[in-house]
From TrEMBL:
This is Dihydrofolate synthase/folylpolyglutamate synthase. The keyword Magnesium applies. It comes from Ancylobacter tetraedralis. Keywords: ATP-binding, Folate biosynthesis, Ligase, Magnesium, Metal-binding, Nucleotide-binding. InterPro entries: Folylpolyglutamate_synth (IPR001645), Folylpolyglutamate_synth_CS (IPR018109), Mur-like_cat_sf (IPR036565), Mur_ligase_C (IPR004101), Mur_ligase_C_dom_sf (IPR036615), Mur_ligase_cen (IPR013221).
Length: 446
């Protein structure tokens, strides 16, 4: 008698079928999403209050801070993020817990049946399945992260969120969103809704102008970092101030100066939510605990012992980050400079990037900071840049560079760098690379 399919096998079988439904020609609209949601009974109308988050960098970290604060206040929190690092289940958190395989399989099967074999993107149909779960499992709030852009993203089916959030906008995904910051900001501003308040992170002037024009058309009140509210570090603490007063909070657990802005954005979004709904007027103690507790894998994550990290020479300090665009490079370089000021170590970078990314723009901020760079391929079927191209981009910025066939080989080769003290290693350049590193090291997100 053949073995019965296991839950993980069932999930992978459905994924294979759903991927085959991808449209040959993509029409830039939400028509496929609306059609499927109608067949599923419009679960998007039965969700708990939604905080909808768009932006180029910092979306996941901002969501992580909000989740930590809300859970510290005793709230049951749904979370939708993408992409995942190791397992798809990471994208869907139901009332605080990652979705299990059996529940995920059942929701995907329902969405597949309702779709009836029609063309649809993988993100659209999996988002519809997530909406089913979010509608059927009781929670107090849904933190909903945009997948790509905003205006035509599959998550943009929420008519009246509690709050909209736009994190800093910069150049990325130019094939889909446009080649200028203003064009990209227009896509992000597509999540703004009539009369719904929005909290806006620090933006380039051209991006902010676009967001403000869209908000004015919709009469959506704006709370803009640097204008209606402030967030900065002072005396090793996070200080957030708006018209409701000042909050003096612990420095965020997530590492890097850029996390001050992400944490401040999260705090302000929740304060604005509390102005709109008394159920979200949270105690100061929840904000304090949330800053200490927030976690977000592969965002300057210090890697602990595992099969991969043990290949490095003794004493090497290994960090992992999924940054991959120019703004991400700037934030990472600032964070590593901050670490260098605290504890000085030579910086060695292990970098793998996708072919759609500008490796030169990402690496430029590390000039004068990185001692050495080792370029590696991105594992799997992703269209990665040849390591030789990444190494060439590094050399163009004055960074000594070589190539290796894998992250493991790059770590093995660290013994060839006779530096003291032991180096600080940053593995970066792609979330796909970061996911492969976590899986190989046995450091699975939970």
């Amino acid at each position: 008698m053949p073995a019965l399919p296991q839950p993980r096998d069932a999930v992978e079988d459905i994924f294979s079928r759903l991927l085959a439904l991808h449209p040959k020609l993509i029409d830039l609209s939400l028509d496929r999403m609306w059609r499927l949601l109608e067949r599923l009974g419009h679960p998007e109308t039965r969700l708990p209050p939604v905080i909808h988050v768009a932006g180029t960098n910092g979306k996941g970290s901002t969501v992580a801070f909000m989740r930590a604060v809300l859970e510290a206040a005793g709230k049951r929190v749904h979370v939708y993020t993408s992409p995942h690092l190791v397992r798809f289940n990471e994208r869907i958190r139901l009332a605080g817990q990652l979705v299990d395989d059996a529940t995920l399989t059942e929701a995907l099967a329902r969405a597949e049946r309702a779709n009836e074999g029609a063309p649809i993107t993988f993100f659209e149909i999996t988002t519809a399945a997530a909406m089913l779960l979010f509608a059927e499992v009781k929670a107090d709030v849904l933190l909903l992260e945009v997948g790509l852009g905003g205006r035509l993203d599959a998550t943009n089916v929420i008519e009246t969120p509690l709050v909209s959030v736009i994190t800093p906008v910069s150049i990325d995904h130019v094939d889909f969103l446009g080649g200028t910051v203003a064009e990209i900001a227009g896509e992000k501003a597509g999540i703004l809704k009539r009369l719904v308040p929005a909290v806006i992170g620090r933006q380039p002037p051209e991006a902010l102008a676009v967001i403000e024009r869209q908000a004015a058309r919709l009469r959506a009140p704006l709370s803009i970092m640097g204008e209606q509210f402030q967030a900065h570090e002072e005396g090793g603490r996070l200080v957030v101030a708006d018209e409701d007063g000042l909050m003096d909070l612990p420095r965020p657990r997530l590492v890097g100066p850029h996390q001050i802005g992400n944490a401040g954005l999260a705090v302000e979004a929740l304060r604005v939510a509390g102005q709109r709904d008394p159920a979200f007027r949270l105690p100061a103690s929840a904000f304090e605990e949330g800053m200490r507790a927030a976690q977000w894998p592969a965002r300057l994550q210090r890697l602990g012992p595992g099969p991969l990290t043990q290949r490095a020479p003794q004493g090497v300090d290994i960090w992992l980050d999924g940054g991959h665009n120019a703004a991400g490079g700037q934030a990472l370089a600032a964070a590593l400079a901050d670490l260098e000021d605290r504890v000085s170590r030579p910086l060695v970078m292990i970098v793998g990037m996708l072919g759609t990314k500008d490796s030169g723009a990402f690496l430029a901020p590390f000039a004068g900071l990185a001692r050495e760079l080792v370029a590696v391929p991105v594992p799997g079927e992703h269209k990665g840049q040849p390591p030789e191209a990444v190494a060439g981009a590094a050399r163009a910025h004055g960074i000594s560079a070589s190539v290796a066939p894998s992250v493991a080989a790059a770590l093995d080769g660290l013994s060839a760098f006779p530096v003291a003290p032991a180096p600080r290693v940053l593995i970066t350049g792609s979330l796909y690379l970061a996911g492969a590193v976590l899986a190989e090291n046995g450091t699975l997100p939970d």
